[in-house]
Amino acid sequence: MNRPATGQSQAGKKPPNSMEMVRASLPKRYAREKRFQWYGRVAIGMALLFLSLLFISIVGNGYTAFQQTYVKLDVYFDPDRIDPSGDRAPDALSAGDYGGVVKQTLRNMFPEVRGRRDKRTLYGLVSTGADFKLREMVLADPSLIGETATLWVPADDDVDMLMKGHIDRSLPEEDRRLKDKQLAWIDRLVDEGRVEKRFNTTFFTAGDSREPELAGIWGAAVGSMFTLAVTLLLSFPLGVATAVYLEEFAPKNRWTDLIEVNINNLAAVPSIVFGLLGLAVFINFFGLPRSAPVVGGLVLTLMTLPTIIIASRAALKSVPPSIREAALGVGASKMQAIFHHILPLAMPGMLTGTIIGMAQALGETAPLLMIGMVAFIVDIPGGVTEPATVLPVQIYLWADSPERAFVERTSAAIMVLLAFLITMNALAVILRKRFERRW
Amino acid sequence: MKKTSLSAAAVLAVFAAGAAIAQSGRDYIAVVGSSTVYPFATVVAEQFGKSTRFKTPKIESTGSGGGLKLFCAGVGVQHPDITNASRRIKQSEVDTCAKNGVNDVIEVKIGYDGIAIANSKKASEMALTLRDVFLALAEEVPDPNGGEKLVANPYKTWKDVNPQLPARKIEVLGPPPTSGTRDAFAELAMEGGCKTFDWIKAMKKSNKREYKRICHTVREDGAYVEAGENDNLIVQKLDANPDAFGIFGFSFLDQNTDKMRGAAVGGVRPEFESIADGDYPISRALYFYVKKAHADVIPGMKEFLAEFTSEKAWGDEGYLADKGMIPMPKKERQKFASDAKNLTPLKL
């Protein structure tokens, strides 16, 4: 079985010797193969180890962000504070002193708290988001004014951190963000059943905020969607058309060679360069607005085009020539052969390439820094020309925020981004498995 | 080639739509500028956006210099309305502004920010003087053997600098030269220590350039580590390495008091009160600049200025103080609030 071909021809001269040589070298060769396999296994093991370390640290840091501490308040919607004029005009209702209402509620709950300083620390238990919540409720239903309602409002981020065990009670008082008095108040609220950890819907529905308990990922997610939509609308047709022309119609000459070399080179250009280009061309020359998804989409189109073109050309190449020849043979024009037969067969490969390009674009930050998409934006963007950020930029911004509670939100945002990326890549794999035909 | 012409049409349409919107005006305020002012400006913007009918202003963190460059590029909706700065505008920048038609600029000082030299609570406390800071971090220092001569910084431990300090290796993590925090640190801390040497101080008049070089140049032999603009990263690194010191804004120290301790400088600890009183030597003023030409064009500009300069924002107990900004004395607040209200242009 393992006897090499040369062994036979030399068998006449010194048959035992060459056989022995082969035999002698066999264990060594097997050992080498084994070793090589082990190198591979160790490499995979290391990769998995690092990957799991990464995931464990992100999930370990971030899973708590999906819960948020809420405090139950019995709020009296005081007409004197909310609507002093009494005419229930929306503008007047909007300007009402809702902060005062929340503060009055807290004072009623802790009547023993006296002194300006103590009161201030008391007000710090509840997020400023409570004021906004009350305003929204009153604007939606002015009949609430004069009524008392029980509602759950988000707690301040420091209280949230305490409830999640990120604040060490054993430290001396001056080393803690929460003072002894505040701890006592919180413990009383917990005993009364007025503090509860709930699923953090705000995180998935709100835009950015400087208060961790009010900050959400939705604004960035919408920004990402608009940006990717622009990218997809521009890069897919352009990429496929380029690939079809270069692969099927273009003559082979120095010009097409040059174009091909350039496309391959562009795929390797650092993405920040596209950002600089976008700043110079789209913003400074064409006067498109800064921080807008349309510019982000244009820049990312430049970045993903080479990927899509290269993948599409590979997909076109992999369609067997027999199909093209058969189509031409039964009288189809070149155009018909391409559009009726080759393109549909190449489409799964093209889509896979496109999805991978889109996933790349989704995770891209550097070029967006240059075109002003790194900005504090609270409102959810409503179109491609309104200011927006994207998911990876939101992660970058939160990672740089001083408040401790943003640490877990940063990790949670990374999880959301990873979920999007895994979904997109899984979609690419499914498309390939489902529709790809092998010959 | 239907697809190509279609996408060409799409590209054109996008440009046309974008340009149309850029010209037709903007219904939100655009703010750029300093990364030090960013955490404060964003809080005001959010309050403003949630409590008025106007849209929330968009705030980009571009650094003081970068912000002023964008701000001074011209008048019109494609240029920002407000820029934040962690230093005062320079004459050269005012000139650039004027050249591009940005004539009336309103200056609003919003408060102070201290720069802390902090280390982990795991290590012992250290009291420094500005002179210690200069000797530990300058590229060239006066010859330790005496005489009016400079030598390359020979100090390896804090004890070498000042016998009263512990024999710990000098290792300081701080911001890179592009940062406004670094500029302020060089100007206030390094120069402050530098001019305690009389012969160097005398140089300020005779050879200003050399004086600046001696006082502002930070050593590059590994004792000072440029840790990037991310102050959170510095805090994490200090926690892991108790021997090292970090240089960052007071607001980060304020949020991390359970892990970090600010070193006393000249006998004063970086605390809210000491910075507000001006006792703590390393603190600087924060500003923002407003384009007067935009005040009537962009909706909500005047209301935004009113929110920023209201007592509930920048007052002694305002929400900016909660975020770690040090308020100005009441008199100064009144002056700048009235400047903002009357849109009084800046005169340098």
Please tell me about this protein's structure.
The complex is a heterodimer of chains A (about 450) and B (about 350). Chain A is mainly α and about 450 residues long. Chain A has three domains: about 5-65; about 65-215, no CATH class; about 220-435, MetI-like (MetI-like fold), CATH 1.10.3720.10. Chain A is built from 19 helices and four strands. Chain A has helices spanning about 5-10, 15-60, 80, 90-95, 100-110, 115-125, 130-140, 155-165, 180-190, 200-205, 220-250, 255-265, 270-285, 295-315, 320-330, 335-360, 365-370, 390-400, 405-435, and strands at about 65-75, 150-155, 195-200, 375. A three-stranded antiparallel beta sheet of chain A has the order 2-1-3. The longest helix of chain A has about 50 residues, at about 15-60. Chain A is extended, with a radius of gyration of 32 Å. The model of chain A has no long low-confidence stretch (mean pLDDT about 90). Chain B is about 45% helix and about 15% strand. The mean pLDDT of chain B is about 85. Chain B is an alpha/beta fold and about 350 residues long. Chain B folds into two domains: about 25-110 and about 285-340, D-Maltodextrin-Binding Protein, domain 2; about 115-285, Periplasmic binding protein-like II (D-Maltodextrin-Binding Protein, domain 2, 3-Layer(aba) Sandwich), CATH 3.40.190.10. Chain B contains 16 helices and 13 strands. In chain B, the strands form three sheets. In chain B, strands 1, 2, 3, 4, 8, 9, 10, 11 and 13 form a nine-stranded mixed beta sheet that branches. In chain B, strands 5-12 form a two-stranded parallel ribbon. A two-stranded antiparallel sheet of chain B has the order 6-7. In chain B, helix 5 packs across helix 7 (about 180-195). At the A-B interface, helix 11, helix 14 and strand 4 of A face helix 1, helix 2, strand 2 and helix 11 of B. Strand 4 (about 375) of chain A pairs antiparallel with strand 2 of chain B.
